[in-house]
Amino acid sequence: MHDFNKPLTLIDVGTGAGFPGIPLKIIFPKIKVTLMDSLNKRINFLREVISELKLEDICAVHARAEDLGRDRNYREKYDICVSRAVANLSTLSEYCMPLVKVKGFFISYKGSNVLEEVKNAKKAVKLLGGRINGCEEFNLDGDIGRSFVIIEKIDKISDKYPRSSGKPSKEPL
Prior knowledge:
Layout: E1 9-13, H1 21-27, E2 32-37, H2 40-53, E3 58-62, H3 65-68, E4 78-84, H4 89-96, E5 100-111, H5 115-127, E6 130-140, E7 144-153, H6 167-170
Parallel strand pairs: 1-2, 1-4, 2-3, 4-5
Antiparallel strand pairs: 5-7, 6-7
Helix pairs in contact: 4-5
């Protein structure tokens, strides 16, 4: 995978309060981080947090993933895309894969029992130029199951993705 101690570009889609983007930036200061969220109120909060913590090479962007994935300043520009609790894996892949460089990775933070969701997302991931590399399951505090679904971008994505705003969630691939 990647060595987070080397300079990398990372985008956190649907970052909310900045997790996991801000902790990753603090632990691995060499990475360049973009925090993206569709709520401007959250972005304003994150900008204050970034300023208070005096973090460098990190920015907060107010946008919908469908729009950012079509913007050539962001499209296929990131080594790693992370996201958690935003949508099912098929929909989330359409939001995130357009932002990832070929040979980059999309890492989705999911709950336990994710294998059925992964199975249902295989077609979407392939359409979006990706390949599911695996699912790493782990427990927090003994019995809270979590998973990382690791998707590698192996091919450029078609210009028709992401589809227009709202379509990925209403009609998953």
